[in-house]
Amino acid sequence: MEFYIRTQGDPNFNPASIDVESELGMALMQLETILFTKRGEVMGDPGFGVNLEDLVYSLNYNEDEIKSTIQQQIEIYSPLVQKYNPQILVSFYKGSVRDIAQIDIELDGAYRVGVYVN
Fold this sequence. Notes:
- This protein is an alpha+beta fold.
- It has a domain at 2-83.
- It is 33% helix and 22% strand.
- The protein is built from 4 helices and 5 strands, in the order ββααααβββ.
- A 3-stranded antiparallel beta sheet has the order 3-4-5. Strands 1-2 form a two-stranded antiparallel ribbon.
- It is globular.
């Protein structure tokens, strides 16, 4: 069981839910937590989290390094997500103010999580 952390405005928000019981729902919630947690925010484990915006806009990383960082976080912190054979694709596009990063994570070839960082 995972605690339900979706907020009002989220497309899958359910005000009557306090936990997530489906295995896929738990995997998606863990993946979301890994992606949107900044390193150092979790007390007792300063290595947890992808630190996505800093990672994407650091001049030291390319698509393969970002993909590798996400994969390492999944391997360390979410064996449940690993069970769904995650495939990660990172792409950059030219934006008007700064470049846009698109990160797609596909689980079992059927479920896709997409993140845009701009």
